[in-house]
Amino acid sequence: MTRERADAAKNRAKILAAADIVAERGIEGLAMAEVAAASGVGVGTLYRRFGDRSGLAHALIDASEREFQAAFLTGPPPVGPGAPPADRVRAFLHALVDRTLAQLDLLLMAETAGPPARFGGAYDAHHRHLTVLIARAAPDLDAAFTADALLAPLAANLVTHRGVGAARLKRGLDTLVDGLLPR
Fold first, then answer.
1. Which residues span the domain enclosing 38?
2. Is the pTM of this model over 0.85?
3. Tens digits of residue pLDDT in 125-153
4. 162 with 83, same domain?
5. Please, what is the angle between helix 143-151 and helix 85-102, to 10°?
6. Contacts by 21-27 with C-beta closer than 8 Å and gap 24+?
């Protein structure tokens, strides 16, 4: 793994801090030229570093994704280890609903940048985690397919299109989990 140069790390931190304009003005306010000016770096540096607005969106999502992964890998139950698999699936999905809704605009931009944009990275980590828990809870199920089915309603474009809130998403996912996994 290549180590990031100190000046590059400093520029990255300044860029991500400047990109907080999303919190103030929404995703429409994420103009690359404005982020570059606010961070004191050239537009070329910004594009080389992140590629485009969706790359910058992925970087902005990264910190909360790392915290989320730490919670389900090593945090306290029921999201973290120590609870029965079905309870962990439910807690994980509830936490993912909250996380998705908290960063919906950024996820929408990041997940719709191209055909495979939703998959890879975080999705793969979520899918692997669910697959393991589902296999433990219900060995006769196709755990990988079931994990995809449980993650599908949380695609940012579907959540946006349907306008579904946290309570309805959680109820719907609970119904699916209750029907699929023994307690």
1. 1-51
2. no
3. 999 999 999 999 999 999 999 999 999 99
4. yes
5. 30
6. 22/60, 22/105, 22/106, 26/105, 27/57, 27/105, 27/106, 27/108, 27/109
